[in-house]
């Protein structure tokens, strides 16, 4: 026995009605707001979610009172009203209540063509969505005979006449929509949008406002900003004499336009009303709204409204404009822009409207897009740059010696690696579009070709486009959107700076990086890696001489030649940063990174050093390591070959004096990498203090400096207390710390990380999102112990995670002083930090 | 002005005198004990440490009362008495008080020759140690004219007569000895023995008991056990008519001897007295003592006594004998043997008395010694073994494919590596003498030669000896001492087992290891690594087929061929262990360890697999990792290529059923390596449970098994709580955990570990001694969280540290259930655990 449910529980949308989003859905609430603004919304009744759920559960709707509310000439639409506009819902059904009698009346009042179109539309909807007949049979355009054919088809398929009772029509429509919402497809779709599987649905029954009539009629949408650019501009569409699709429609421009008729000219009063309604919505609803409206013989009706869909750049512009106009506060403006969306604005993007010839996919490792000719070596990239030709560097993976080639390239594509591989890290630092782990491509460096899954072969010099935002490699040239670092962008971030309560610095190794950091208004450099400075060709040779030196004296002689170059490096950075803090990490990588590993390279080196090849080979072999990540690098090198740190400290101090003499005073920060015991810090500190004293004497200058530790081994986090006794700051290097906490090399993780995340072995790639449970606990332990031993110790994160909103929230909660991230992540970080400050203000 | 100190503060050694070790030194206390036993000790006065310190500080000793105590005919010896016998001290000075008058009297009573010898001896001592004259001038043997020459030389050098006042002689001797104790050399020497730099000295003044006289006279030492073997046997020496070195001495055997006269025959009463004194000492001092004695005209005097110096094997034998005789308790016997000393007893040792032709030094990585012919490859080692010829495997470093060669060799010598390198770990497991990191040697594998620092070149086939106990490589054959796994050894360890309160298991991978573990009475296998099982030539081929399989099905087919072999491996282990627990670690290493890395090997593989060489090369390259330690291995492989664990689980369960049917019931323990997230355990557990269910059905058998986790990443320790929810046991793999906590690869650490420990950057090599502060804290965190989530979770350590006394103490204090170590470390571990149980009993 089927249970009946009487649709008694409905509420008319009046200004004072008890309508809530939770009980009636967003659309019900939105329409009520329009009504309160005196917008001409047709009469609308809202069915609450519990009624809709009962119907879906099988109860038969008894629509008596509901139908009666619209009087004898029932003609309504039924619209879905879920809790959130993005959660979708079944398609609206229009013209419910039409039947032969009503059709006849409409033929009189609106003409046969219009009446036919309205009836046909309902028959088609009902047949496919309610009676579930084959949709292919009900696709005819309105026209002579189409209505009769549809009614006949309905009869043939159901052995029944098309239902003529308006109340029955309404009941069936409600039931079909309630059930559609509970279907598997609808559930999956809304879950993909972030809705809970059991999200409820409200339904709205609205008096039809026809876009057809004897007088000026039509329907359209209108909005008052551009959804792509955010500029104040009326856009939308209006078609005359139409209700949805129709053959006899006539298209109007909204505003005056030389190309044709416009609503503004044809119906100036209606147009003016729409503009007034838009303005009212903007001020009272505090949002840019898109209005859906009809005009029936000169009568305007607003039948629906929606927040204007917008690109990231439009979102920024709209929020800033609303705040500047006093419609919303600045804090509200800040919260209206999703931080991650900002990174789109910093780079060229493939125009989403343009066609794409995708040839492969990989991991989107650094956002933005670029087009250029394929090169397979760093040397070829540099040659390209010399010819002023855009190129894409394609490598199996990149290594430190490729850095200059990456500088020269417009984008990077690698076959291997993950989001924190060398290529990815460097590319993000350079703001260079980058795809890594594109394992679908087959690289044949010998033939200088690249094969892609569909069988095409690309050669050196062929043009491709790398879309680092979504990880797609495209053949040929693609249309691009320009970066949007405009006033709105800058304004919003300044507002964000005023509310955030954690510092944001940038990781910057080169003057270019530093300038980018300044452009994005980072509060200093949180991590300046110095090793890249030794890869210039002239420096590399000296570096190798140093490595091959047999005595400390010979090492010193080689390093003395590097000293002026390093000093110039640091002076340049200090000058650019103009007094902002610069945290310089002492030399970190294993020495063998500076040696050639192929026979040819070793022969050249033997010649250059005038030593037998066998000796060069032996030394290179002796320096090779099983696990370079866990080998002789960082402070271990600093203690075993102390001449390197001595030289670097001297270069830093001499640059400090020099830069302070011609610019803002500099207080350099020196950071010791890979510490695992407090005594390491003690030993290095003693030598660096001595160098500082010597430079002060020699240059007759005064300066102070801060010495700190990069906490990147689990042991350094555990022993942070005693380490802090010798360190003014502790900066957590979460890249290496993650590697060691998991026992997982980021360079080797790519082969299984995908399947690990898919199987939910790891909730997220820990190199991408900070592992709060494991690595995060070490951060908390380290921070607490560091502070306990030295209450003024500066705490920060300088790993790749630094710019992630999740990490910023974590570090802020843990009381860290700042995070440091790639320059191109700085805007995201500034905005995200402001969000957290607004959403969870600190106590005290 | 020189301050005078009156030597009033002295105490005669009488049975009731208030003599303490702290105030008068060990020798004073020891002599008092002998006096209490009524041994004929000459009158002895003890100077307390504060007096000696005052003299050393410059006070002038006033010996009036002291000298008076010995009457007018002062003739005494002065002996040092530090707090501990091993802390050395200045040389004793004899015959203090002799002068021209006394010499004349002695000529009458003892004869001119004897009197001359006594006076000469004192003049020589005084001249060199007190007057600090050139020792070369005072070395003459006693004989006609020697005394006069010495006195003349003294006069010539000092422009003074030799001092004739006995009291002055005594004062000067006391002063010189007090000062010598404060000298730099003496300080360094005693610090090397573990003494504090400021350790004090007591001095003893003893009435001279001459070994010279008209009747039967002489001096000697006697002890009642053999210091090398520990056997009950009288040894020592006796020389007639002598006091120290002398030309006219006559040597006697102590006991009857066909080769010549013996004390036992010549002076049976004295001999019997000595034996009685020895027996009294043994019972009353509860120790085997060595007695120093003199006989003056038939009068016996005991002038000093010392605990018998003993080898490790003698220490065990003596302690067990004392306990068996009821002289000491068993617990006392246990505490009298230093645990580390036991490892000497398990292996052949180079006889310390034999000459050594040392050609190089390295790190003593696995104790014991062996002689054999040099081979440079594992294949050559196997060929040697086939010819039944002892060989020493010499490699730059060893890799898993060398394991069979190591099995075949009698010792291993490598140029590289540290105490936890592959060679060292495997060698200790095999009980094979091993030296690693012998960087002094130059290996030329191509010429098959080995150059050593002194320029000698050794070729394949030349004989050398590897002394893994002290890290020395010797040329040729060396005399050896046999292992001493005798009854005393077994008895002592059984006693230790009765008191210890932490379990000791062995790490055992092969039936040979398991048998060794049983021989040393380990309580099961705590870590059975399974990967070596795949290196047999027939298995390696199948393994490689598995690696090259393109589908899961092909992988299964290859693995099915390995299944019976694995099952046989496990059945053998279960049979040997006879119901004791066996903890099997699932496959751990990265797959590329099973692939060839040179061109030749790859060509052979391509042939064997019937695939193009280019494909083989590409696959091998693709599997190569930057940091294999942190790569795709352990459970990561188990999840990504689950067929391997499936096969291993099936082999374990089928072996369980088989072994249980013909022997003791088996409850296998299965351990998952390299876990970093609880979900990994969950996933593997689900599959293994399914395999168990299938095997039970197929074999119609019942069995239970325990699944646990090897905690070897810092993250696993931090997340031990949730991991324990799926794990019956947590076994801490401290090797890898140390590597990851420090960010330090044990294979690469060798290059700087030496200088790190020397500079005290690390207090100890953390791969050798458990790092209690860092790694230890992770153990404590892991243990506490594991227990909190699962109170009955079994906790253990199975890394190389397992057998170290320090680690055992730590694990015991932390409430661990057992430690697991190399089979050859089991005896040390059993004894050390007993020591801790006795020295710091657990509460409750």
UniProtKB/TrEMBL annotation, chains A, B:
Q: Which residues form the active site?
A: 422 (tele-phosphohistidine intermediate), 798 (proton donor)
Species this protein is from: Phaeovulum veldkampii DSM 11550
Instruction: Report whether Kinase shows up as a keyword of the record.
Output: yes
Where, in this chain's numbering, is Mg(2+) bound? 712, 736
- Determine the domain of life of the protein's source: Bacteria
Function according to Swiss-Prot or TrEMBL: Catalyzes the reversible phosphorylation of pyruvate and phosphate.
Q: Which SUPFAM superfamilies match?
A: Glutathione synthetase ATP-binding domain-like, Phosphoenolpyruvate/pyruvate domain, Phosphohistidine domain
For this chain, the family text in UniProt reads: Belongs to the PEP-utilizing enzyme family.
Report what the protein is called. Pyruvate, phosphate dikinase
Q: What is its EC number?
A: 2.7.9.1
- Domain PEP-utilising enzyme C-terminal, by residue range, is 489-836
Where is substrate annotated to bind?
529, 585, 712, 733-736
Cofactor annotation: Mg(2+)
Is the keyword Nucleus in the record? no
- Domain PEP-utilising enzyme mobile, residue spans: 389-471
Keyword terms? Kinase, Magnesium, Metal-binding, Pyruvate, Transferase
Q: A single Gene Ontology molecular function, please?
A: metal ion binding
